[in-house]
Amino acid sequence: MVNPLKNGSGEGKYRPQNQSQTRKEMVQTDAKLTIVEELEEGAFGKVFRANMGDKDVVLKSVSRAINHSQETVQKEYAFGMKLKHPNLIKMRSTFDTPDSHCLVMDLIEGVNFFQLVEDNGFRAIPETRVIKIFRGLAKGLEYSHSMGVAHMDIKLENIMLSSDDHVTLIDFGLAVEGTTCEQYRGSPDYASPERWMDQPYDTKPSDVWSLGVVLFVLLTGSMPFESSEYVAKMKESTKSFPWPRGVEISQDVKELCASMLEYNPADRPTMKEVLKHKWLSKPTLLQRLSPKLSRRTTRP
C-alpha cells in the first residue's frame, strides 16, 4: 500500500538499518553502558539500543560535525530532566565522545503513532481507543506547557505507544522554553500557519495545532491538508472543516479537533482547556464500572 501520510521532519528522519550492519559501527561509551544494536541512522546521527546495568535504554548519538549539536543535546537533556511526567520521555544521562554528543534515555517498547496508523491500513482508529490514548498524550503536553516548555515537533513519529496503550511523547530536540519563537521549527505537515509567516509566534498554540493534526490522523487515517496547498487551505478550511466522507465519529471530537486547528492561534484552546473539553472529560470504562464494582465488594 502506498503511504498516504507524509513523513517529513525539520530535524531529519532516521531510517532503519539492516541487522547485519548494526554492530559494525559502535560509539564509545562509558563502562556502565553496553550497546546491543543499532536501531536507526540519519543525517544527524545514530540511535542504539543499549543496556545500562539491568535496564534497557536508548542511546542517541549526534555528530559533533552538526552545527550547534552540543547545544541541542544539552537542551534536550535539560528539558528531559526538568519534565517529570509519566507521559513524557525520561532521560538517564548525557556524555561526549571524540565524535559525538550522546543522550541516554528510557527505551519505550512498542510502536510509534505512525506505525500504529500504518498497521491499521491508514484507516480510522476506533474513537473509543483514540480517546484513551489521546488523553494520556494531552496530559503530558499540558504538563510540559505548565512547566514553560513547548515541544515544537509533535508528530506521529514522536509519540510512542506501549502494548498496554500507554503513551509517551519523545524527542524534545527542537523544544523551546518560553512563550515566543522567532524561527521555523518542526515538521512541515504538522506546522501551524504562523510558523510559515517569517515573524515571531506563540509556541504553545502552535503545539496545540500540531496535536490537532495528530488527532485528525488518528480519527481518519489521513492528513487534514495537502502539503502543496497547505497554508491557503488551512485558512480556507477551518471554518467548515473538511472531514472525510464515511468517517463515523462523535460531534464532540469533531468540535475539539476543529478548535485545535483554528487558523488564528488566539482562537485555539490551551492544553488545559483541551483536557477539560467534554470529549476528554468523559469517564473511562473502568471509571464507569468502579462504583458498581465497589457496591458488589461491600455487600455483606
TrEMBL record:
Residues 1-26 are annotated as: Disordered. GO terms for cellular component: nucleus. Keywords: ATP-binding, Kinase, Nucleotide-binding, Serine/threonine-protein kinase, Transferase. SUPFAM superfamilies: Protein kinase-like (PK-like). Residues 33-280 form the Protein kinase domain. One of its GO terms (molecular function) is protein serine/threonine kinase activity. Pfam families: Pkinase. It comes from the Eukaryota. InterPro entries: Kinase-like_dom_sf, Prot_kinase_dom, Ser/Thr_kinase_AS. This is Kinase. It comes from Planoprotostelium fungivorum.
